[in-house]
Amino acid sequence: FALAGDTPATLEILDLSGRRVLAREVGSLGRGEHVLRLAEAGSLRAGLYFARLVQDRSVQTAKVVIAR
């Protein structure tokens, strides 16, 4: 994912029902592209999820597949 600036940002993982199953504050990583390994993802079942990045008034969403 890429951050547009140094302002607070949150990366959330949502299940297909829209429930937040994981959240991580990422704004402290600063502007630019980042790779974040989610150790807690090991507790998620294999399947389709959505990743939502929220920063300022910007919201970006992408599909995520967890395969085991």
Keywords:
mainly beta, 68 residues, single chain, two-stranded antiparallel sheet, 4-stranded antiparallel β-sheet
Separation of termini? 22 Å
Tell me the overall shape. Answer: globular
**Element string (H = helix, E = strand):** EEEEEE
- Taking pLDDT < 50 over at least 5 consecutive residues as the criterion, the unreliable ranges are none
- Structural class, by secondary structure, is mainly beta
Instruction: Please list the strands of the largest sheet in the order they lie side by side.
Output: 3-2-5-6
| Overall mean pLDDT | 91
The largest pleated sheet is described as: 4 strands, antiparallel
Q: What's the total number of strands?
A: 6
Compute the gyration radius: what is it?
Answer: 12 Å
Description:
With 68 residues, this protein is mainly beta. The protein contains no helices and 6 strands. The protein has strands spanning 2-3, 9-14, 20-25, 32-33, 47-55, 58-66. The chain has a 4-stranded antiparallel beta sheet, with no helix packed on it. The chain has a two-stranded antiparallel sheet with strand order 1-4. It is globular, with a radius of gyration of 12 Å. The mean pLDDT is 91.
Question: How would you summarize what this structure contains?
Answer:
This protein has 68 residues and is an all-beta fold. The chain is built from no helices and six strands. The strands form two sheets. Strands 3-2-5-6 form a four-stranded antiparallel β-sheet, with no helix packed on it.
